[in-house]
Amino acid sequence: MLEPISVSLESLNLGTLAPMLVAIGGGLGILIIDLIKRDLDKSLYVMLSVLVLFVDLGIVLGLQAGERGFFDIMLIDGVAILSQIVILAASMLFIPLALTSKRFHEFSYPEFFALFLFMVAGFQFMVATDNLILIFVGLETASLALYTLIALHNREKSFEAAVKYFIMGALAAGFYVMGAMILYALTGSVEIYKIEEVLIAGDYANLTILFVGFAFLIAALGFKLSMVPFHTWTPDVYEGASAALAGYMSIVPKIAGFVVAMRIFEFMIHSDVIWLRDVLYVVIVLTMTLPNIMALVQRDVKRMLAFSSVSHAGFAMAAIMIGTTAANSALFLYWTLFLFTNLGAFTMLWISRHKESRWHIRYDHPYEKFSGMIQIMPVGAVLMALFMLSLAGVPPFSVFWGKLYLMSEAVNNDYIILALIMAINSAISAYYYLKLIVYMFLKSPEENDGTIYMKNASRPLQTIIGLSVILTVFAVLGVEPMMDVITAYIKVSGF
Fold it and tell me: What are phi and psi of 191, to 5 degrees?
């Protein structure tokens, strides 16, 4: 007769699950409140969501690095804590954007906020484990919620964007499962640290099969990180989503993807597996360069920002290929600085969004819409110009320091050509960022139907933009302290 297995609560270490349980509990709580009392004001759900995220952040800050929990599938290391802080900070910046005018009805649905919290929990699961199955569960939880959030915008383009994203996401999920299955067949484990031990002990035998497995994983993560050539869905999905959600999509799903890529690929890079480094090198160079060139010919500002965010992801992915502690620290610094600037830029688009009256039959945000903005909305034009200069990497604005640290790490590790390609791409990107500034400051306002397109600037949106501006302009004062904190977390993780 088999002995029953006894599991104590203490050995499960449920504290490692607490942040995700708070987010899931918050989402369920919002749905229950809606069942009890319908048609409550959306500001209640916004405040509840911010409160849940704030509690979640407090729990994450209280976690101790170096812990495992729930049958050892949860991993709380420095990278897990750091990435959850970035995810929750970005989420708390995003949610107040729902306090816009009543014209945008998706924010009136409590389901919007519940799905948002479920999505956050999915991203947290992705970064707080090294188990391939739980990474997949977190990935699909976050993705399914995100598809629905895009569709809730309730426009023809939104439905199209959600369907495209769903199809691409389903394909990526299939690639991920195939890659994970091959690694399991080779090593007998779905734990990344055990896969590493078996592969190193076997001196990376069965290289052909291993190459196929990692090719599937690179393709799967390439879709999620919108790496070339898996980036084609990005501009269409960003265009169909609301500007606020597009800004969020350009930040949070990617930081989760970077952490997963870091865990899966870096042990191979540290073992000098040359072919993986070469494949990543080619993908990174293409991802930095091709979207930059495509952004040059865009007529819509949101599509331009979509292509530019793909290029920025290529910059950040270079840190994973370099694989040093300093490079990984530079990745988190870069993405944190990029977070505030890019979310600020997309929020400016959200302010200029008008649901009933559209400027152009094809585009919501053509360059012409911003013509002479300095005369119509001087403060808005100056703020948008600041965000564009920062994204272009102009000193002393925030993104410049992220690029500087990444390029210096490339040079320090003898990737001179890569650093040169980074510099060239920064110069190319300056053209399309400055193009918007030229339209705003040097052109006359375009004739339209009399609609005021900057009427969406509610007080919460102004607050978020103000915070983004402060952190964009004065980032230089906080770069060194941020780098010290980030490096301390990265070192604890052993990356």
Answer: -90, 125
SS3 of 74, please? strand
Both tokens of 491, joined, read 């070192």
Q: How far is CA 59 from the centre of its chain?
A: 22
- Confidence at residue 137, expressed as pLDDT on a 0 to 100 scale: 93
252, 90 in Cβ contact below 8 A? yes
Decide: 258 and 331 in contact? Cβ < 8 Å: yes
Q: Are 125 and 70 in contact (CB under 8 A)?
A: no
Question: What pLDDT, on the 0 to 100 scale, is given for residue 95?
Answer: 86
Q: Measured between alpha carbons, how far is 237 from 30 in angstroms, rounded to an integer?
A: 27
Torsion-angle region of 72 (φ positive above 0: left; ψ -120 to 50: alpha; else: beta): left
Amino acid making up residue 116:
F
Q: Which residues contact 286 (CB under 8 A, 6 or more apart)?
A: 228, 229, 314
Please name the residue that has the structure tokens 């996401």.
169
- The fraction of the chain above a pLDDT of 70, given in percent, is 91
Residue pair 304/294 in contact (Cβ under 8 Å)? The answer is: no
- Rounded distance between C-alpha atoms, residue 480 and residue 487, angstroms: 10
Residue 40 has pLDDT above 90, yes or no: no
All structural domains of the chain with their residue ranges: 10-493
Q: Find how far residue 323's CA is from the centre of its chain.
A: 20
Kindly report the average pLDDT of the chain as a whole number: 86
